[in-house]
Amino acid sequence: MSDGLSTILTSSGVEYEIVPCDPTLADTAQFCEAYGYALEDSANTIVVVGKSDPPVHAACVVLAPTRLDVNKVVRKKLGVRKASFASGDDTEELTGMAIGGVTPFGLPDHLPLWVDSRVMARDRIILGGGSRDRKVLAPPRILTALGAEVVEGLARVPTG
Predict the structure, then answer these.
(1) I want to staple 83 with a disulfide (CB 3.0 to 4.6 A). Which of 30, 58, 59, 75 is the partner?
(2) Which helix (H) or strand (E) holds 49?
(3) Cα 8 to Cα 3: distance, rounded to the nearest angstrom
(4) pLDDT digits 0-9 by tens, 32-83
(5) Can you give the CATH number for the domain in which 94 is found?
């Protein structure tokens, strides 16, 4: 996927950097602590499932300190009565990527990509790179350059 990822990222016309990482440190908090990135600059790609027949899915990009609003915003956007986070197995089956390495780049065409508007306010973001051994560092406009839809209120800041 590395060559394919580079091709996709280059096609955005936005500068980016591939950041290698120890796969055992790929989870957000551990990665940020080990490599000196701020949690506020770390964006997670989360696959969600709408409970319908057949199920519907989307990939959502949110900043690490925020929480994806699955019960209201995602559910309504998917057009279903109930939505939840996709399991690790479902995420891997849909994207070909393991949790901790899921990237918003090169997702299947049938999987919409939604980005919380807070992500777009950062100068740069660090994202999964398609496997647990790498991340992508880039300005957030790389997401919209590759077709992501910005959604106001997709995530919320946890209280307490």
Answers:
(1) 75
(2) strand 43-50
(3) 9
(4) 999 999 999 999 999 999 999 999 999 999 999 999 999 999 999 999 999 9
(5) 3.90.960.10
